[in-house]
Each structure stands twice: as structure tokens, then as C-alpha cells.
Amino acid sequence: MAQPPPAHVDSTGKSEPSTPVSIVGKVLRVESFSKHKGHRNLGIRGAVTLCHAALTLVLILLERNVPSAVATLCCQLVAAWSLVHQWKTADPHMFLVRASANYVRSLIVIHSAVCGGDSWIGTGCKTSPWGDVRRPLRVLQVLGSIRLCLNGLSLTLQYKFPWRGVGKYGNEQLFYRGIAQATGIPIHFARAMVKLGELSGTIYDRHPLEIAVHFVRCFVLIPISSWSLFDQWMTTGSGRKSDDRRTSHFGDISIATAETFGHVFDVHKGHRNLLIRGCVGLGQSIITSCLIFWHVDEPHTIPLLICQLFAAGTLIFQWRTGDPWMFVLRAFSAWARCLISYHQAHCGRKWVGTVCDDEGWNDIRVTFRIIHVIASIRMFLNGMSLFLQFCFPKRGVTARRGNEQLFYRGMIQGSGTPIHLARGILKMALLAETKYERIPVEIACNFIRALVLIPIASGSLFHQWLHTGTGAKDDPRTRRERTFWLSDDETLDATASGENGNTDDQLEVTSEVPSDSVSCDPDFPESGNRAAEDIKPHLQEEVKVDVGAVPLKAAAGEASVSDAACKQEELSATIRL
């Protein structure tokens, strides 16, 4: 049986986990999460399931579909208990308990789809919704039932085959279950938007809290559960703590195992935050698509959708390649959006080339016209920031901070939150019960942008600015978070800057230390160079690695580096397991 990784003892004599962890990992690896037999992610998902149960209780108090909600609450409480119990004991029988709870919930949901959620089993079914505006909700319930059934099947298979896929990663069912969980995001989002767009103003109108429950599940709880499953799959390879005492700490630890799921995204040349903002851009485009579907300001939402998809594509491409020309493309996309907002302010919801609606400047809509002007200025400044970062890639870069434009752009992005909050609130306060009244879907989209998508994008920019300095590898607060992923045809190189060796500009990922100044001696003799002396205090354990044959993960500042001559022979690479 392999022992857990050795602890690192710092200068104060305190013991710390020897593996590099992210900021989130540091929070989750506190003693209360680590002292039990099961993996910490079981405790996280147990807490999330309790939150799901609390939201279901809210629906019961609102008297919404009480028969199905009561049964669902019981299943959620059982599942939460099984997760917490398995976290404390690593008892594999809890897989079967949760599988049974999922199968029962699948039957509950399919009964709701066929007969309605407010019908008790054995009473008459209400099939009329299949012929009116509620049909899309019934279809979504069928999809939800299939999702729960697949989740239960995955739990059953993990109990039956505990070693299936275990090696570099954990049990393969964790990955499949992460996907099954993630499918709940579009399901709950669609249910909320359909209730807002199709049922509002009808006899089937839903209570705002019921719709809010869908959004909380969609944007908060389900993403946490899904990420937890993917993180557990990535970090529970052979020899490590898992969720099953039959496999926990058995086998040899693979040196290629990731420490967090986030490290998977560092394999590409661009910084991981580019991918995060690319996904946010795709989320923005989905919101805009909803507006187009319900015919909201089509003269401007259609070109806006094109700009958002284009910007999201450049972010993802730059994450993969580090191509700085993507700054220029995104700048032009931002300037195009600047023109769109200006036209909205000047002409209202009219197509380009048609007669402008100037009355909006003289009635209760004048506030919205002013907000459009502010939004136009925001987009112009965003484009200027991108263009300046392309022209001056090293401007403001220090040992601990990245390009200054990342900071400025974080503030520019963050200013979108008050803009969209003001739009949503004023539409409810000023335009309600007037001929300019906006549909609930439009108002909800403003709040989703303000409270979910824009804060993520702004936080991503600030995080990237904080962790992409040239000397970040010497910062003790980030040293344990930086990880390089090397494929068979890549060389072992500790010269890249940034938290994970990546920035958003390939021009900046360059060496500040000549390759011929690095010693190949694993003991770093006195005749070596300053870089070796800086690295030496952080060495923990030496492992023989064939660079040409083994994909190696090594922390920046914690691995010996070599020149071209050293790459062809077996060398000693000091890594932190």
C-alpha cells in the first residue's frame, strides 16, 4: 500500500501538504475537510445537496407542486446524508443508497411530466399541459428524469467496478457523473426562461421565488457539484485518498496526476483565465440568443450576438495559442459594440437606415438612452485597453503583477454590473404598466449579466493581473500554485512567467535566464548559478525521470532545469509529488 505524500516542513517547523494547490484548494484542504476517510469533495457535495433540499423546502412553503416536492425533499436529504457519511467513513455502500435516491427521483420527475407535479400518485393525471404553453416544461421534465436515471446508473457502476479507470485519474464514473450533473445547468436555465417568457401574464404565471430557485440551482449549486466531481476524478488516481475505502491509498502514486481540476487547462500556451472569459463570452451570447428568441430589440441583439461569439472565439483561440493578435480582433469587436450601443442611444430600437425614434429622449425612456451612452463609452474604453496591451505587452509588468491593462480592463468590465443593474431595476420601476413595459425575460437577462457573468469576467481579469508578473515564481504566496504540463515532445523549461507558466501573450513567455547558465548538477554546487541557488531551498524530493519518455509535471522554482545537451540523457528532476 502506498503511503500518502510526505509533508513539507517550513522554516517555522509547521507541517504543510507537500503538493502544490490552488487558492481554492488551500481553502478546501483545511483540517476539518482532510481528517476523514473519504475525499473532501464528498463533504462539498453533501453541503450542496443540503442547499438543494433547502430550496425544495422553499417551493413547498410556496405550495408549488407539493406532492412531488415533498418526495424530492426526502430523496435529497437521504442523498445528503449518504454523502456526508461516505466522506467520514469511505463506505462504498453509500453509492447504492444515492443510486436508489436518484432512481426514486427519476420516477418522481417522470410522474410529474406525465401527470403534473401537483398530483399525488394514484390520483387522476392532468394531461392538458401537453397541449398548451406548458408543453416545453413537460419535455424538460422528461430530460430531467433521464438525467437522474443516468446519475443513479453511474453510482451503481462505481460501486460494482471500483477500480475501473483508476490510474492517473480516479474512477471513470466520476467523470461521467460530472457531465451528467452539468447537464442540469441548461435544464434549469431553460425551465426558468420558459416560465418567464411563456407563462408570464397567463393563468399559469409562476411565483418569482420559484424562478429564482431555478437560477440558484443553475448558476451556483449545480456548477459546484459538477466541478467537485471533475476535481475528484482528476485528483484521486491510484495511491491517493478516494471516496471508496476499497481503493483509497492503494497502488502507486502517479507523478502525472493533477492536484486540481484547474491544472488541466494549463496545458495550452495562453493563461487559463482566457478560457474562463471565453466561456463567459459564450454565456453572454446565450443570454443574447434568448432575447432574440423572444424578439427583444432584434436590430441590435442580432449584431450584438455576432460580436459576442466572435470575441469568445478569439479568447479561446488565444488560450490555446497565446497569439497576441487576438487582442486586436477583440478590440475591433468591442468598438463594433460601441457603435451598436451608440445607435441604441441615438435611434432607439430601430434598424440602421430607418427613421430614428427621437421621442425616447423626451419621455420616461431618457434614462435608458443615457445608460446606452455610458455603455458605449465602456465598450470604447475596453477596445482601447485591448489595443494598448497589444502595442505595449510589457507595460506595467513587474515581478508580481501582469500587464497594467488587465487591471484597467477589470475595472471597465466591472462597471457593467451597475449598468445592467440599473437597466433591470429601472425597467421594473419606470416602465411597468406603460406602453413601454418590458417582458420579464429581458429584465432577467439584465440581472444575469450584472450578478453572474460580468463579475466572473471582471474577477478573471483581476486574477490574471495579480498572477502573471515576470517574477511570480519567486513569490512564496503563488509558488505552490504554478504547474507546467509537458508532453513527450516538449522540453523541461522553468523560464515562463506567470502563475502557471502562461500569460495571454506568447511574446511575454520568454526566458530571462540564458540557457547556458543553468547547471545540470542535481546537487547545485557552489560553482552553479544564481537561479540554482534560488531553487535549492525549495527542493523536497528527487525522482529519476526520463524526460523523453515521461510526461512530467513540475512546479516552477521546484525543478532542476537543463540545457539542450541535458535533454537527451536521463536526469534528476526534483519535483513535489
Q: What would you say this structure looks like, in words?
A:
- The relative contact order is 0.08.
- It is built from 17 helices and six strands.
- Helix 5 runs antiparallel to helix 6 and helix 13 packs antiparallel against helix 14.
- The model is unreliable at about 1-25, about 470-500 and about 510-575 (pLDDT under 50).
- It is mostly helical.
- The protein folds into three domains: about 25-255, no CATH class; about 270-325 and about 345-370 and about 390-465, no CATH class; about 475-575, no CATH class.
Summarize this entry quickly:
54% of the residues lie in helices and 3% in strands. The protein has 577 residues and is mainly alpha-helical.
Blueprint (SSEs and pairs):
Elements: E1 7-9, E2 15-17, H1 23-28, H2 31-34, H3 40-61, H4 66-89, H5 93-115, H6 135-160, H7 172-182, H8 184-197, H9 208-235, H10 272-293, H11 298-321, H12 325-347, H13 366-391, H14 404-414, H15 416-430, H16 440-466, E3 484-485, H17 530-535, E4 542-545, E5 553-554, E6 571-574
Antiparallel strand pairs: 1-2, 3-5, 4-6
Helix pairs in contact: 3-4, 3-9, 4-5, 5-6, 6-7, 6-8, 7-9, 8-9, 10-11, 10-16, 11-12, 12-13, 13-14, 13-15, 14-16, 15-16
